[in-house]
């Protein structure tokens, strides 16, 4: 099964966080120019005259131990990234809210992404963890580190766990972490290009430093939002974004 790679910006407006009309929405996920930390039951509150639908998705983060799964989840949520690496003992979940504007209708949606991160050793030790991570998952991020060649070579094994006749169709993206440490780079651009052509899965790159909190995570979160929304439109049976009702609540 070859996925179709969506050209960035074909479903949601790319770089919308830089546009004036997005300020009202992004202000709801920021506090003193830092990202707000949302608990499981919290959500951004918009003024009554602005009706925004929230669409909920479960995203699993897959990858070898030490590639930066926990750091990526923290980065995407705008939280402080732990300085020390420690193996995640069980399942950790992080909630990320991200407003995105649909290109065709101009409608704004809040994407509520619940990121699931589970330590590799825990997954190996406890058979029930992977099925519960997979259950109702809408997307999976396969991670490799630019400083660890074996993590890149392991991608096909990671992807194999999510493909097969009984597997639910999920959005798949690959994220290369530690891209800022190019001095120690073990994975060449050519390898990344070849991989993308072979598998038809978009590959995104993430460095380690959090800068303005939006610009460095926008490409990945927009790509995720775009692919999830497109996936739902196709699943709704039409492939056209017009056929969905104006208010759609996804389970």
TrEMBL record:
This is REM2-and Rab-like small GTPase 1. It comes from Nibea albiflora. The gene is RSG1.
């Amino acid at each position: 099964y070859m996925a179709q790679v969506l050209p960035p910006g074909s479903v949601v407006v790319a770089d919308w966080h830089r546009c004036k009309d997005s300020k009202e929405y992004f202000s709801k996920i920021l506090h003193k120019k830092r990202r707000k930390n949302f608990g499981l039951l919290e959500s951004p509150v918009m003024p009554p005259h602005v009706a925004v639908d929230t669409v909920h998705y479960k995203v699993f983060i897959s990858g070898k131990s030490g590639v930066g799964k926990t750091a990526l989840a923290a980065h995407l949520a705008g939280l402080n990234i732990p300085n020390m690496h420690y193996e995640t003992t069980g399942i950790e979940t992080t909630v990320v809210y991200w407003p995105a504007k649909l290109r065709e209708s101009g409608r704004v949606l809040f994407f509520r992404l619940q990121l699931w991160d589970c330590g590799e050793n825990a997954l190996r030790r406890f058979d029930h963890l992977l099925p519960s991570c997979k259950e109702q998952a809408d997307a999976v991020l396969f991670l490799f580190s630019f400083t660890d060649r074996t993590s890149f070579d392991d991608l096909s094994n990671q992807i194999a766990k999510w493909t097969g006749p009984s597997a639910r169709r999920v959005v798949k993206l690959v994220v290369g972490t530690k891209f800022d440490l190019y001095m120690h780079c073990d994975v060449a651009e050519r390898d990344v290009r070849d991989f993308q052509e072979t598998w038809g899965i978009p590959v995104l790159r993430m460095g380690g430093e959090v800068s303005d909190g939006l610009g460095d995570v926008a490409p990945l979160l927009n790509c995720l939002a775009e692919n999830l929304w497109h996936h739902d439109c196709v699943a709704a049976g039409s492939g056209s974004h017009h056929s969905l009702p104006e208010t759609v609540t996804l389970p």
